[in-house]
Design a protein that fits this description.
Strand content: 25-35%
Strand order of the largest sheet: 2-3-10-11-14-19-20-21
Largest sheet: 8 strands, antiparallel
Structural class: alpha+beta
Helix content: 25-40%
Number of strands: 22
Shape: globular
Order of helices and strands: EEEHHEHEEEEEHEEEEEEEEEEHHEEE
Distance between the termini: 13 Å
Length: 323
Amino acid sequence: MLQGIHNRDFQGTLPFPCCRFFAFDTRNVICVDADDAVLERAREEALRIHDAFNRFSPESEVSRMSAAAARGEDAEISCSPDMIAVLQVCLALHGETGGAFDPTVGMSACAKPDFGGDTVAFCRGGREQSVSTGGFSHVRISSDGLLRIPRGLGFDFGGIAKGYAAERVLAVLSQAGATRGFVNFGGTIAVLGPETPGLAWVFGLQKAGAEYGGDFCALIDAAQGAFATSAGYFRDSSSGGRVRSHIIDPRTGVSVDNGVAEVTVHCQSATLADALSTALFVMGPASGLLLAGDLGAEALFSMRDGSVKASPGFPARILGGCE
């Protein structure tokens, strides 16, 4: 996870008013040159996006979409502009990655890895079914904003919603006249403007698996654009302490085991950075760095052996092993 560090004292002191709140199942910070009223409007915008994309709430837009498709026939429903915008990014990235990014994998609250067999099962309608890949490629958005969803398909936008929320919050802040600051939604960061002219914000990249506020393995200079990190591994006691990832390859339904500990992406769009970090984790460094370059993004792979593989232009100062 990326955490803010003040440029001079490295103690986390921030020079602008801040709003801190919990959403997207994580800590969130908005820090900008604005008054409390503007910060509150920005927080409300973040919570609005959270409520729309929260798959655990039956009242959310994403839950209503999944429920419509679960009724036994292909569904055609009207969606909000926010949902259409996110789905368009998802469809484009799904194609670019050959299915490595898929917002339908993990769609059920009872999704769980089968650690013994390296497979995943999802509960749909009270029954466990194996993962079926490729369903998302059949989602269609009409010119008048209608969404066509294949029968039985559900959605989980956990890999992109924080980035989209960060982008929407920046828009609210900019419209209110703010020019300097950042938002940090659980390690998904979007920069509005520098701390002072010519001075980038500095964020510490934690070693994968470290406690919050723990060891940093790199310092990232965030002068502009967005940054997002995907990480996730644990030691599975059922297999003799083997390191396993809770991130699933949507093309196979198998827990990712490619030596990657975490991936941080830098690009102009927070929405793309958030989604692309997940996709690159699945793809691994060889093909992931190539795709990042093709999309105009920079990426840093922290490997479980402590090595780092990064794009030449990634704005980071490596401190030590990121294992």
